[in-house]
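Aim 2 progress update. The chain analyzed this quarter is reproduced below.
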Amino acid sequence: MNNTATFNQTNPVSSLERARALDLPSREATLNRAPSVQQFWNRNNSLLSEAWQEWENNHQDSLFIPDASLLDKNLRDAVEQAWQDPSKESAVQEKSL
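Predicted structure tokens:
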């Protein structure tokens, strides 16, 4: 699970490119919560944070901002009513079924 990519120090590579080149933990190791998986995240935390920020900066104009229109109108109304009057919270569960 070592990072197998080699980078030329004279030609700087972006954080995003370095993050994409990481050798990811296997599915099995992740599901089994192998210590090596936690070590992977600890070792690469800064790089992944930088890469995420770089990706957001590169895609700022195309990011989708979700809003309430994604929810069914009846569910949305029930949620709004529950915020105003918590005793109506059961209506949210009924509308979500």
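The chain has a mean pLDDT of 84. The longest helix spans residues 35-58. These observations will guide the mutagenesis experiments scheduled for the next reporting period.
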